[in-house]
Every structure is written in structure tokens, then in C-alpha cells.
Amino acid sequence: MRADSSRTQTADRPAIADGIHETNAAPGLAGSPATTPSGVTWPPRTQDVRRYGTLIRLTGPLTDDDLAAVRTSLPGRRVTRDGGAITIWPAAARQVIMHHHGLVILHGEAFDTWSLRAIRAAHPGRFISHDGDIVTIWPTTVDPAQLRPTTPK
């Protein structure tokens, strides 16, 4: 297969148009230059790249300028920064409604099994709920259904 700026491939995965390998890629794969989309250069301050299916997480002393550079490189993907981590969300995540203090709310059209596995693999120990077109990554390991309202004294 001939490579161009919008396609990439590895020996075991066919290329797809968004440059991040097919959506049924196994979650938990560590990122490396081989999994970097064609035509994309990670910011120089990137210290580590991890790939979980179609979710990619960059870590290091990353800034808002680095976030802008990644967003420019991957215009069809939702990209957020939380401290020193930049997350490139699965293609199913069409909108990041909230990403604040560990709470992440994603809105999408079709969160398939592979997208959900990638999100869960990237957030071990966190409670993740999925209701139709909304995925919530809770900032705690406690199931929200176990939380009880308290009565002020």
C-alpha cells in the first residue's frame, strides 16, 4: 500500500483514512513511532506515548501550545489536555462535553465495543458509564449508584 499524509499502516493492521489504525485494534498497546499516524509529529516535550486501541495518550511537560499543535495535526479527532497529559479520544467521541478535575463526559454517535474497551484500558480503576451516546469517566473508583445524598445537620 502506498502511504500518503492521510493514511498509515503497520505490518499487522490495515490503514484507515483518519491515520489511527482500525477500530478493532487490541486495547492496551503501547505507543511507538510505528503507531504514530503518518504526517504527525508529536510535540518535542512528549516523554511517553501510549496507545489503547484508537485512544492515544501523550505525557510530559505539555502545554497549551502542544495541545494546539496536536489538534492541528489531527483535525478530525477530539483532543484534550489535563495537566501533563494530552488525550486523543477514539473517533466515536464527537464532542468532549467536560474534562475537568478527573470528570470526563464524551458525546458521540456510536460508541462501539472497541471504543469503550480503549477508554476503559486507558483509565484503569476508574468507573466508566455508558448510556446511549454519552460516556462518563468518573473521577473516582466509586460507582455513582453507591453514592447517597447527605442531609445537612
Main sheet? 4 strands, antiparallel
In terms of DSSP E residues, the strand content is: 25-35%
Helix content range: 10-25%
How many H/I helical runs? 2
Overall pLDDT, averaged? 75
Subunit organisation of the chains: single chain
Give the end-to-end Cα distance, rounded to a whole number of Å: 69 Å
- What does the radius of gyration come to? 16 Å
What is the strand and helix layout of this fold?
Blueprint: E1 48-52, E2 55-59, H1 64-73, E3 79-82, E4 85-88, E5 93-100, E6 103-108, H2 113-122, E7 128-131, E8 134-137
Antiparallel strand pairs: 1-2, 2-4, 3-4, 5-6, 6-8, 7-8
Keywords:
single chain, 153 residues, alpha+beta, four-stranded antiparallel sheet, 2 helices, disordered N terminus
What does this structure look like?
It is a single chain. By secondary structure, the protein is an alpha+beta fold. Helix content is 13%, strand content 26%. Strands 1-2-4-3 form a 4-stranded antiparallel β-sheet. The protein has a 4-stranded antiparallel β-sheet with strand order 5-6-8-7, with helices on one face. A hairpin with a 2-residue loop joins strand 7 and strand 8 (134-137). Residues 1-34 have low confidence and may be disordered.
Short description:
The chain is α+β, with helices and mostly antiparallel strands and 153 residues long.
